[in-house]
Amino acid sequence: MDASKKSGDTRQRLLSQGLDMVRRTGLRGLVVREVAAAAGVNPGSFVYHFGNRERFVTELVELWYAPIYRQLRQTARLRQPGDALARLRDVIEQLLQLAAEHAGFASHLAADALAGEPAAQAFLLRLPSRHMRLLLVLLARAQRQGRLVDAPPPQLLCYLVSAIGLPLLLARGPLAASDWLPQQARQLQRWMADIPAARQRLAWALAGITKMGE
């Protein structure tokens, strides 16, 4: 094996082990020496590839998010004409599925940001220019096409997020590991986490902001 391929393999092992650790503990629980040991390399090799912990965790977050954002951009097709309301629905449908698949990681990121992790805070600050922007652009276009009620797009986005995505993230994130909830709350948690139920909330939410007769 040549040196460049070996170096690339080492870097990939570190990233892979780092992602596994973050899924379990969040960024705040990531320890460089433990990542290096799990990857079978020494800490000096970690420093060679990433420089420091902050650069490493920043790359980890982007490694997780970049494929998600790429899928959403492909669905939104902002550079192409078409029915913006239909594309908005498609993007939110995709977000629902992605939220279900990645709720644990996303919940950790929110907790990491609150705990003062700079990489998590920087990631959350970038979101308005990324997939949230896709949704805002589609909302504004649907309004211009006469499909949605007249209201500030950020207000409509808050409404959709609170009705659809927030219950899903809560139920599949922090609440998923709770063992102290009463049985009645457990049933509510199952409903909140259910994808078909989230799709039903999506239909209700969009109906609430769609102009009559559309």
Automatic annotation (TrEMBL):
Keywords assigned: DNA-binding, Transcription, Transcription regulation
Ranges annotated as DNA-binding: 31-50
UniProt-recorded name of the protein: TetR/AcrR family transcriptional regulator
Organism of provenance: Chromobacterium amazonense
Domain HTH tetR-type: 8-68
Gene3D superfamilies found in the cross-reference section: Tetracycline Repressor, domain 2
Listed PROSITE patterns: HTH_TETR_2 (PS50977)
Keyword Transcription regulation assigned: yes
Record bears the keyword RNA-binding: no
Any Pfam family the entry gives: TetR_N
PANTHER family: HTH-TYPE TRANSCRIPTIONAL REPRESSOR NEMR, TRANSCRIPTIONAL REGULATORY PROTEIN
Taxonomic classification: Bacteria, Pseudomonadati, Pseudomonadota, Betaproteobacteria, Neisseriales
